[in-house]
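Progress against Task 2.4 (sequence-to-structure conversion) is shown through the following example record, which the project officer requested during the mid-term review.
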Amino acid sequence: MDVIVIDTPQLGDRSYLVHDGTTGLLVDAQRDIDRVEAAAEQAGVRITHVAETHIHNDYLTGGLAYARKHGATYLVNAADDVSFERTPVSDGETLQVGGLTVKAVATPGHTHHHLSFVVVHDGEQAVFSGGSVLYGSVGRTDLLGREHMVGLTHDQYASARRLAEEAAEEAALYPTHGFGSFCSSGPATGADESTLGEQMRTNHVYTDGDEEHFVSELIANLTAYPNYYVHMMPGNTEGPAEPDLSVPDSLDAQELTSRLAEGEWVVDLRHRVAYSSNHLKGTISFEYGDGSSFTAFLGWIFPYDRKLTLVGSREDVENAVRDLSRIGIDSPDAALGEDPEQLAPGAPVSSYPRVDWQGMLAERPEGETVLDVRRTDEYEDSHIPGAVNIPLHELLTRLDEVPAGRLWIHCGSGYRSGTAASLLEREGHDVVHVDALFAEAEQAGVPLES
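Structure tokens generated for the chain above:
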């Protein structure tokens, strides 16, 4: 048995191709299935079965599109109400995929109808746990509504124990979430691999023997998750098509200028340093290439009923088109290039100051507002005395709460504050981007309080 990991760090998720050398099972496919096709071709295997552990909340699946395109059997829980033809599978069902024996195990918690798959080949076991047991944590239990949260958290506790009964401790564990995905109930551990036994010894879902304590602690530590999640489950229930990943023709200068003047969503993909020094007025800064930040944070605040235009190099636009397709933002327009004056000659350009912590301490007059755009839980843990906290994902709905006067804007790394600075400059505010790691603020002499 061989397991090929198809990693999507932009969303903190993994898909898996498990095979016996000739025949394969695809688990939790991302929407851009060309990566799966390439992996199967390179391995010399035919994928005959595609399985979903659950109806996903943080990305659109490629499972249905792959199954239809390649004539594979599509395994989805019989209890899930979906709008497409699939092969229903239920708890305890076992099927053969070439030389692989695949057993479906009900592991509710992340969703009501969540399944894990225990795969056996020549005595070797692998567990594909989806959003159930992760590396160091479990999938979050609040995505279906707070009215279901307590019950699902109890389910998650019981499901971890069910998995421990269904597979051996030496079984390799392959979760879908937990590599930076907001579907995890805890921070990523950084682990690249693990076994079920290792998790039984270290994961709090196993080590916390008091179920009520586990439930209360998990719920207390759940943080905000991206707004785009609301679109994912309905999209996956309908059945997403394969996306168009082609790079669009570049808009001409007149059309780009018109979109800026009309206040449309025009996103500049360049590095935040380049953006702050010179950009087309009215654009929004979403630096591409910063791990998972781009997709998650753009999807978090982008209004899905608006048209999106990407501005940047052909390579960045091409990659962004792929990333955004995974969360259902399809076929954005683009203006290809990185020089604002050449992209739209005559259109207004702008800039704003960018400083580090030392720069803020030296240059900020007393009384000017420090705006902290981190999540509320981050702010409550530690913050600059007197700082105003409006999380980036709430900024557009709370613009009336933004103080007047110059704003010194920071976050945890500089990424979110760069986006916030661009949004607030677009709204007419005088901004300074504090581009620095919050973890280094105190060392730089910035006073903090909890």
